[in-house]
Amino acid sequence: MATLTIKGLHILVLLWMCSPALAQSPPAIQWQRALGGSLFEAAKSIERTSDGGYIVGARSDSNNGDVTGNNGQVDCWVIKVDALGGIQ
């Protein structure tokens, strides 16, 4: 029976630690934009640049939309966007 009490205590502590009251609020969305084409794209790395924009390392299966010159099934794709999400 002591084992159940200890497990119950661990679950209670875990639930308390995961309480929304203790969680930090996520930052507000400034803008959002979908980039890519009609197939599968996935951002793998995003870094803020010194001008307030972002550089994104991604994979792309598309050859339409924002993507041109696909060289096979899956390509690497590097995108630079300005502070408002416009492709540079």
What would you say this structure looks like, in words?
The protein is of the alpha+beta class and 88 residues long. It has a domain at 33-88. It has one helix spanning 2-17; strands at residues 41-48, 54-60, 75-81. It has a three-stranded antiparallel beta sheet, with no helix packed on it. The longest helix has 16 residues, at 2-17. It is globular and about 40 Å long. The termini are far apart. The model is unreliable at 1-10 (pLDDT under 50).
Short key terms for the protein model shown above:
single chain, 88 residues, alpha+beta, 3-stranded antiparallel sheet, 1 helix, 3 strands, 18% helix, disordered N terminus
- Portion in strands: 25-35%
Q: What topology, given as strand order, has the largest sheet?
A: 1-2-3
CA gyration radius, whole angstroms: 21 Å
* Structural shape: globular
Low-confidence stretches: 1-10
* Continuous helix count: 1
Terminal-residue CA separation: 64 Å
N-to-C SSE series?
A: HEEE
Mean pLDDT value:
76
Structural class: alpha+beta
Share of helical residues: 10-25%
User: How many E strands?
Assistant: 3
Biggest sheet statistics: 3 strands, antiparallel
Quick description:
The protein is α+β, with helices and mostly antiparallel strands.
Topology record:
Blueprint lengths: L1 H16 L23 E8 L5 E7 L14 E7 L7
Antiparallel strand pairs: 1-2, 2-3
